[in-house]
Amino acid sequence: xxxxxxxxxxxxxxxxxxxxxxxxxxxxxxxxxxxxxxxxxxxxxxxxxxxxxxxxxxxxxxxxxxxxxxxxxxxxxxxxxxxxxxxxxxxxxxxxxxxxxxxxxxxxxxxxxxxxxxxxxxxxxxxxxxxxxxxxxxxxxxxxxxxxxxxxxxxxxxxxxxxxxxxxxxxxxxxxxxxxxxxxxxxxxxxxxxxxxxxxxxxxxxxxxxxxxxxxxxxxxxxxxxxxxxxxxxxx
Length: 236
Hints:
By secondary structure, the chain is α/β, with parallel strands linked by helices. It has helices at residues 15-24, 89-109, 124-145, 148-151, 154-178, 180-187, 200-209, 219-230, and strands spanning 3-8, 30-35, 49-52, 191-194, 215-217. Strand 1 (3-8), helix 1 and strand 2 (30-35) form a beta-alpha-beta unit.
């Protein structure tokens, strides 16, 4: 049985791993996942292991469905109220109509307590608050100076996305490298697959460290590697 390790920084749904088996052409393949974020739902029945190395926690196991309860065929008799239980229904309704306005007037007359004033910062706290306020104001002024057309332009958005992806990729790789359990899982893999841009840097470094294990980007490249593993030795 072949083993694949998936490197991912995205939130993956459980159905994604069914697609992985289909794309790789092997329903019995062993899937191990090294994720930066937890999957969107319970995946213990979809993968061999899912190691979360980023923030958050794994989803809880769904509660088992309750067993159906057999419906009782015995019908309970309708409740019967004795005539003497209600002396005079009209008088009871009249009394309730009188009590309700009186209660509302009493509640309105009572003074509502005023909220306690928030204490003002003093000493060092006052200095810190003043510095934070000036820093926020300076950032707002700097943001206004840059035209909106430039801030929302495609090149600026691209550069911001590239920077965020680069920072995530380096953090992800550092976490992979320092986790012995993750490296042990990767050592047993037949193919390592980086699924997204955030995992490319980790995949590249693993490819440099483990020349004997194919490390590829995306499932199509992984399929080619598995096809070579499954092919007879004489056809190579």
